[in-house]
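Sharing in case it's useful to others searching the archive later.

Someone asked me privately for the predicted structure of Thiopurine S-methyltransferase, so I'm posting the question and my answer publicly. Question first, with the sequence:
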Amino acid sequence: MDGSRTSLDIEEYSDTEVQKNQVLTLEEWQDKWVNGKTAFHLEQGHQLLKKHLDTFLKDKSGLRVFFPLCGKAVEMKWFANRGHSVIGVEISELGIREFFTEQNLSYTEEPITKIPGAKVFKSSSGNISLYCCSIFDFPRTNIGKFDMIWDRGALVAINPGDRKRYADTMLSLLGKKFQYLLCVFSYDPTKHPGKVHQFYVPHAEMKGKICNIHCLEKVDAFEERHKSWGIDYLFEKLYLLTEK
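And my answer, the predicted structure tokens:
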């Protein structure tokens, strides 16, 4: 193994220009679901979240948890099963329906009248509501604030040119004493355009005046399939953002 991959202290690329013009359209994301190109979905859930979940939820009940670009993330059921309220947003109706089917949850659906073509799917238990629309069309004014956000596969999937708008959207949803859990990837963006599933997000872009940011863990996420991306290392980082 190359010595450069034995350390988690891989060079951070500060050049944000490399991928700035890359764009994945909503139609392309929907096509990924239709064509089964959803390698980003984790059937067993995210292991770093599972490792830290009890610590985050200790002595807490009735939290409101937001899943941006939720897909059919099984982690939504983890929170719901612990008595918390889950709201997600996903552009793929297929992904949302697969979530309820695969988790054996009955649900209802209804149109969102103010957003053409948008729908909301609600579990019969009432503690999971998934909105089928663009994250930027999500009806924030009627939703309220959240105690926690689980951002895995969301920020990294947002087109680089839309990150500021996305960050503003997320900040508008945060309540007092929030916990924002964020997963990003480190790789050489000069070797990979980012259009497969995730863009490179430099650490500098995550710093802000509103949040404290702490890296909880870094793990080697490189797999054989990533060689086709042209990269030779891939690390996943789990951050916790809290109110300053």
